[in-house]
Amino acid sequence: MAKVVPQAERPRPSQVASMTLLLGLAWLPLISDIAPRVSVFTGFLLALRLASLRWLVLLPGRWLMLPLTVAGMVAVLSDYKTFVGRDAGAALLATMLVLKLLEMHRVRDLRVGTLLFGFLLVSQFLFDQSPLRALYLALLLVLDFALMADLTARVGEGRRALISALRIAGRLCLQALPLVLVLFVLFPRLSSPLWSLSQQRDRGQTGMSDWMEPGSLDRLVLSPEPAFRARFDGPVPPQDKLYWRGPVIWHTDGRRWTGWPAGLPLGVAERLVDTSEQVAYQVELEPTGKPWLFVLDMPVRVPDGARILGDFQVKDSTAVSDNRAYRAVSALSYETGGLDLDQESVGTQLPENITERMRSLVAGWQREVGSREELVHRALAFFREEPFHYTLFPPKLGANPADEFLFVTRRGFCEHYAGSFALLMRIAGIPTRIVLGYMGGEHNPLGDYLIVRQSDAHAWVEVWLRGRGWIRVDPTAAVAPERIERSDLFEVLAAGAPLRFRLEDVGTLRRWVHDLDLLGDAITTGWRDWVVGLSRTRQQQMLETLGLGHLRAYGLALALIVAAGAVLGIFLAVLTRRTGSRDPLERIYTGFCKRLARIGLPRRPGEGPLDFAQRVTAARPDLRVPVESFMAVYLPQRYGAYPRPAGRRELERKLRRFRPRRR
């Protein structure tokens, strides 16, 4: 026989419905993060609890709760094979909390649910730490506080009760804000952000590969997603210097270009002969799942754990599976020095499908010029003067893509130009390699940093010339501007397209949308830098800005104790001072007396309301009507045996209208 719960201990249906809706709202963001089977089971339980408010018979009894609990655990275990870990733990927490909702029959049970609800909110930061998710969860937390206030104070039913509960919750959050700020600034930080310790390496990752195959695609889709962000210590270099170096590819079979041959040692780069125009900057790289770190040509100093390989690509010791922030120094003007035999051999390797007309084209150039440097310029003039077109919709190429592109289609994007130009240089005996990376970047004035997007991906060529070393050559930039196809796709992604192809005459609406995108990116970047990613180093930078940079471990702990004690002391003093004026009627009467005191009629010590009113009306007969009207409501409300529910609101209205003036 079920135990009967006393009426005084039962929660109202509106409170149970509020708890159910809160769990549903907290569960919605997790749908994309936890297994579909668990999501369906949790959604079914939430719908069942809401339906039971209308049809009580649907609420499962004690004996049915046991199989439902087992079913929930089986659903989690079948999808994750464990109860341990971020995904399995969050799924199990959500499932058990919703199951607990089905047996919340007392107010005490709902109070426990509101406390456990906080753990469900915190668990979501293990999946997403974006400012939008944080704002959404903060709103849910305020609603949870409001439900706590309603369960404790029993503020009533209806719209007024909801407003009263939300007011209490908002006041509690505002009162806690100073202490939160003190803890945020002064609490000792770990060497790495807290949330990254629990993230698993199954996040979606973006980036480029270490190979290219010109002619294999008939459409190139530009993605506006950020690849990384860069913040320079000084002025931003000009756009024609912003070549962000990534993987370097050397070998080709006539169709596909790949990296350095596996059987040969590449080694590490030697010191550059000349390194002028050095710039220092910080890069915040999005997850790629690859070990490359993108740096400006040419890298001089790279972060600890990374190394500059023999072809000047930078590799880290581990794959970039999380947002990675690192500092680097590059030389915008440089000379790389000599060339070893292995690089010369690999850099002049030719595939078997080199055609006779490709060799004839290069031979004609060699007869026209007198040096290798002049031959490079002659090849660039060929791309500029002949009817080559830059397009995102090139035709597919066959078994010999370079020959077809050079003499038949003459339509393509950076991969087509880089691949064919490299082969032409190798036919001439010039060591050549292709660099994959990004070109340019968009300045975000709201955060004073560059956004380099996936649509800024680029490929260029490096040739080795005696006395100058490896020289960057960008054959794509040689295409005449009038032969760059500007389709609607360029207009849509104008903000993310390579800068030299960017349209400046986009519509006003698109420009507004783009400005909003920059604002959102600045907010996200600032949130990630100074909130989610606030490590020990960044905390020290913040303390130096506040003039507290001299504080170290013990000094920081002492400052935290002193500041927290001061905040709590001030808060306690304010509460103590207000203890005597918590009665709403006393507060209203005090306001009434203050307004009379301002016109020279202060209330005497020990003077009662009736005597005070009689003295005021005797001194100022013109105030008789408003004073007696106020007292006619205040005295029964304050001292009467049966005060009216609407009396306080009526007094507040009379006080707002009472504006006595001096004679």
SS strand fraction: 5-15%
What count of helical segments does DSSP give?
20
| Parts with pLDDT < 50 across at least 5 consecutive residues | 196-206, 487-505
Helical fraction equals: 40-55%
In spatial order, strands of the major sheet run 8-11-5-1-16-15
Which outline best applies? elongated
Radius of gyration: 36 Å
What is the number of E strands?
18
* Oligomeric state of the chains in view: single chain
* Domain count: 3
Largest sheet entry:
6 strands, antiparallel
Mean pLDDT: 83
Distance between the termini: 78 Å
- Determine the structural class based on helices, strands and strand pairing: alpha+beta
What attributes characterize this protein structure?
663 residues, 3 domains, 20 helices
List the SSEs and their pairings.
Elements: H1 13-27, H2 36-54, H3 62-80, H4 86-101, H5 107-123, H6 131-153, H7 158-186, E1 226-232, E2 243-249, E3 251-252, E4 257-258, E5 274-285, E6 292-293, E7 295-296, E8 299-301, E9 306-308, E10 314-316, E11 324-335, H8 341-347, H9 356-368, H10 372-385, E12 389-390, H11 401-409, E13 411-412, H12 414-427, E14 432-439, E15 442-444, E16 449-453, E17 457-465, E18 469-473, H13 488-492, H14 508-532, H15 536-545, H16 553-577, H17 584-597, H18 609-619, H19 624-639, H20 647-657
Parallel strand pairs: 12-13
Antiparallel strand pairs: 1-5, 1-16, 2-7, 2-14, 3-4, 5-11, 6-10, 8-11, 9-10, 14-17, 15-16, 17-18
